[in-house]
Amino acid sequence: MHMKKKRHLVLVGNGMAGARLLEELLERGASETFEITVFGDEPYGNYNRIMLSHVLAGEDGEESIYLNEIGWYAENGIDLRSGVRIVDVDLPAREVIDATGERTGYDVLVIATGSSPHFPPMDGLRREDGSLLPGVSGFRSLDETRAMLEEARSGHHRRAVVIGGGLLGLEAAKGLQNHGLDVTVIHSPAHLMNQQLDAEAGAVLRRSIEDCGISVVTGARTTGVTARTDDGRVSGVVLKDGRVFDADMVVVTAGIRPNTDVGVRAGLVVERGIVVDDQMRCVDQPVSDGGGGQVYALGECAQHRGETYGLVAPLWEQATVLADVLTGSDPDAAYHGSKTSTKLKVAGVDVAAIGQSGPEHPDDEHVVFSDVRRGLYQSVVVRDGRLVGATLLGDTRKSAALQQAFDRGLPLPEQRVELLFDLGSGGGEASVEDLADDAQVCNCNGVTKGDICGAVASGCTSVKGVMDATRAGKGCGSCKEVVSAVVEHAIAAGGGTLTEDASVHWYVPGVPLRKDELVAAIREQHLTSVSAVFAALAPGGAEDAKSKMGLTSLLRTLWPTEFVDERDARFINDRVHANIQRDGTFSVVPQMKGGVTTPEQLRKIADVAEKYGVGMLKVTGGQRIDMLGVKKEDLPKVWADLDMPSGYAYGKSMRTVKTCVGTDYCRFGLGDSTALGIAMEEKFQGLETPAKLKLGVVGCPRNCAEAYVKDIGVVAIGNGKWEVYVGGAAGASVRKADLLATVDSPEAVIQLTGRFIQFYRTWGNWLERTYDFVPRLSIERIRLVLVEDSDGMCAQLDDEIDAACAAYRDPWKEREAPDAPGRFSAPALPLIPLPLVPKRPVGAPGGTPRDLLPTPNPVEIVSPNEEALMAGAQQ
Amino acid sequence: MTTTTTASAAGVRVAALAEIPPGEGRAYAVPTSDGTGMQQVAVFHHRDGHVSAVDAVCPHSGGPLADGQIDSCVVICPLHLNTWDLRTGESTSGQDPVRVHGVEVAPDGSVVVTPA
């Protein structure tokens, strides 16, 4: 029995649809029955076009976007003719014809030529030879992306205009902005991403896009492109209304058009795309062998039931059906069209668009939640009890559930809003009512629901009262909302009424004034010490231990030079300039600006650590070295031997500026983050703030020093530009910082940072981190005040911060003259038997050599002897 | 100046008042009341001039109370911010009490502790 001759399958087009078809065919054993030849006019294997935006943004290299490299084709017995463009098909002869006129015969032909960027008619768009004006580009192919990337990185261009504010246009805009260009998006329809979003969602998206620093113009048609007279390169665009935008680069992303030339020349039925039936077979084709014809089309070039698709999911479904049909693995397979849905991140904003974006019938239910300020928009469209559309912007956590409901037509909750939010016990988090009594609510202080209910039962009627009584919510504070909910529930269950303790609004508990009132009174009465504040403003003039620390911080901020320091008003850390540990010892963290150190510094730290038997040497998250387990009485000697400034790892103050490697060595650095970080740490060292302040500077958006989650984060974006972010957090709460402004120089970064710090010092509540402060005031308002100077207070803030910085004095210099007798002397520690903190085992990482371990039996308590007291008195 | 602690029927002299800055505390070792050993006592010099003394060790987790912040009534432990009333030794944040020791300022300015 002779072997059946293989049929010849020719695939025209080597994009994502073609590639997917090949994979589906191979999976079904098509190499047994078909010889396969693939024509692709790009000189590459096939790549993931969706990832081009990542390449443009500099987030991925182009090598990472290949789906199948050229070698893959040979391995699978596929004849790839890359760089060969098919221009025509001779249907009766069953041959395709390439640009050189060469003919290749086929038994089965699949056309997957994809689509091309649509260039709307614009005066001056093309040169006389029909080519695009230099500097104008589509955003569709790897070549175009490479060219744009090269131009954006060249540093010769400052401004870019993107024509078209759809998905691709916004990706292009963000990508170019990453390279430091000023980008304007000009969109002809009235709102962004009008294909997927309704007007309201488009407005929310617009605000988020503008918040990244990209300008947006909508409802504006671009009618012309202008060129420079000297070199003929693009110089800008002209709108229909006469407005002109300068541009060194123009990217056109005004939609796509199916590539149907081959189909038209072949005489196939072509409307918007090449028309196919449910088996992806071209309709009405000349039939020569009694079958339904052997020419097929799929992907973006194909039109099925009147629809053409520009997203990847439909084309995958088409490829599956066609592979079933061609291989005969399911001859009856049929494609019925795709319900389109998109879930993606466009320019940093999460977007999910499922089905229709808004109501289309009079009886459609449309449930909308919109919070423009937070960049949130969520809506669902329900028809006859079934989900027919959903739009999620800014928060797409519900998209999986909605997609399922949409795809399967699942019954929906009677309360439609539950499609978008977890209400009551319906969601992921159990409601407080369902919590068991022994469920721990506050993990820092080990407080259970039962403890909280107990406090309520014993008479507490306010959240604050319960927090004071149980210390719930008084650790990291991240459980406060749950604590409040449990208190409210417990009080309601007991038939009581929740009261609000007025003191929650006071700056400190012992002085019944809000911060602004307190500041006014302190200024008016010229109160420069904590005891003076108590005497003048506290009820009965009574001092309050819990208020002292906050008042000290405030007075230092208000009176940089006149402040009268009373050490008892300081927390122990600020009295001895070190961080107290659980065994009563202290940690010592020398300043290491920007995380940059030297062999000398490391050697000295090592020597001192050995000399004083430091229990653990630890590299901190803030890029310094922490020497843990130093006895209080050793602190002045340790500082003297180190002879380094304090790193302020203990105070409610500017802690550290974390940096990445910057430009000296890094291959990717766009700005010298290391030098800037060092300059910032030097400028703001030791500054007291309402709560600790952590800074970071990174040399590119790869964010190696986590600037996006710092209280203040600075990101180099190239061309000398820096983004300044504020209000980030990566502690008990995690929050990405908000972009305050993009500035042009390191000096401008330092100025804006100083302005923000002083603003925070002035208006921040005691212990209020920037991640609460910034949302409380809103980034928009802060930007108005600090960048646009809407309140005319910038000059004063700048002066105040400079005065505060000038008052800096290294606290570790106090070793030479302590402020009080016995400041660093103590009766022999430990107070209770050590080790409370076990020593690291000898030889283990962080372990101490045996001969350096402190003397055994450190439990013995000795009387302070004469020498020790004399030493203390003399210091 | 005398710097050793001296036990007597009236109590133990631990320091001169001037050695404890106003509003602060210091810890001293004094004999236990039964005279069999030593214990640490935190002595506080309040801003209004009076003195108080309690156990130096916080019963919650061994914090050094002498390093805590005070007002005329309470001390706050520096480790976890628990509070104790210096007059009664009772905790105002739900912890076990501390012992209150007798303490007074002698006419010569000495601080004298009478262990409880």
From TrEMBL, chain A:
The record's free-text note on cofactor binding: Binds 1 siroheme per subunit. Binds 1 [4Fe-4S] cluster per subunit.
Source species taxonomy: Bacteria, Bacillati, Actinomycetota, Actinomycetes, Kineosporiales
Gene3D superfamilies, sorted: 3.30.390.30, 3.90.480.20, BFD-like [2Fe-2S]-binding domain (1.10.10.1100), FAD/NAD(P)-binding domain (3.50.50.60), Sulfite Reductase Hemoprotein, domain 1 (3.30.413.10)
Catalytic activity: hydrogen sulfide + 6 oxidized [2Fe-2S]-[ferredoxin] + 3 H2O = sulfite + 6 reduced [2Fe-2S]-[ferredoxin] + 7 H(+)
Residue ranges constituting the FAD/NAD(P)-binding domain according to the UniProt record: 8-307
Stretches assigned to the NADH-rubredoxin oxidoreductase C-terminal domain: 341-408
Function: Catalyzes the reduction of sulfite to sulfide, a step in the biosynthesis of sulfur-containing amino acids and cofactors.
Protein's UniProt name: assimilatory sulfite reductase (ferredoxin)
UniProtKB/TrEMBL annotation, chain B:
PANTHER family cross-referenced by the UniProt entry: 3-PHENYLPROPIONATE_CINNAMIC ACID DIOXYGENASE FERREDOXIN SUBUNIT, FERREDOXIN-RELATED
InterPro entries assigned to the protein according to its UniProt record, in alphabetical order: Rieske_2Fe-2S, Rieske_2Fe-2S_sf
PROSITE patterns reported in the protein's UniProt record: RIESKE (PS51296)
Keywords (A to Z) from UniProt: 2Fe-2S, Iron, Iron-sulfur, Metal-binding
Boundaries of every Rieske domain copy: 12-112
UniProt keyword Iron, yes or no: yes
MF-aspect GO terms: 2 iron, 2 sulfur cluster binding; metal ion binding; monooxygenase activity; oxidoreductase activity, acting on paired donors, with incorporation or reduction of molecular oxygen
Protein name (database record): Nitrite reductase (NADH) small subunit
Organism domain of life: Bacteria
Signal sequence bounds: none
